[in-house]
């Protein structure tokens, strides 16, 4: 499945189950791990689990296989790895604490990847 179609499927699924504050982050120039991150909030741990489970189910129905799912029912953060697209579903408090939107926007965008920047720091 093409990345744009996968992104649309994920966004529609999150919207259908009333995810809150859905944000799309283009990180293709910042890391080789993924191209896009979608961050969404749920209202409770149960809601987060349902959102992530529904994303996985819809993706599988479309013929794709998630590379992995981290977190589980009762978690305050579930990550669904779809390769070129990574979905983060979090409680609002957890989202505020980790502030992924700010973290990824603060990275240098002058062609230096996260891996390159980390290498320079470690070197």
UniProtKB/TrEMBL annotation:
Tagged with keyword Repeat: no
The keyword Chaperone is annotated on this UniProt entry: no
Pfam family of the protein (one): RsfS
Subcellular location: Cytoplasm
Superkingdom classification of source: Bacteria
Keyword set, alphabetical order: Cytoplasm, Repressor, Translation regulation
Signal peptide coordinates: none
Ranges that cross the membrane: none
Gene3D superfamilies: Beta Polymerase, domain 2
SUPFAM superfamilies hit by this protein: Nucleotidyltransferase
Family: Belongs to the Iojap/RsfS family.
Subunit-structure text: Interacts with ribosomal protein uL14 (rplN).
UniProt function note: Functions as a ribosomal silencing factor. Interacts with ribosomal protein uL14 (rplN), blocking formation of intersubunit bridge B8. Prevents association of the 30S and 50S ribosomal subunits and the formation of functional ribosomes, thus repressing translation.
Protein known as: Ribosomal silencing factor RsfS
């Amino acid at each position: 499945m093409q990345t744009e179609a996968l992104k649309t499927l994920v966004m529609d699924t999150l919207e259908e189950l009333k995810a809150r504050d859905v944000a799309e982050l283009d990180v293709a120039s910042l890391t080789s791990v993924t191209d896009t991150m979608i961050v969404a909030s749920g209202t409770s741990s149960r809601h987060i689990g349902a959102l992530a489970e529904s994303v996985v189910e819809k993706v599988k129905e479309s013929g794709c296989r998630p590379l992995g799912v981290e977190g589980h029912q009762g978690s305050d953060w579930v990550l669904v790895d779809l390769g070129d697209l990574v979905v983060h579903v979090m409680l609002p408090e957890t989202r505020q604490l980790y502030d992924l939107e700010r973290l990824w926007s603060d990275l240098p965008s002058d062609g230096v990847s996260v891996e390159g920047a980390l290498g320079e720091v470690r070197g």
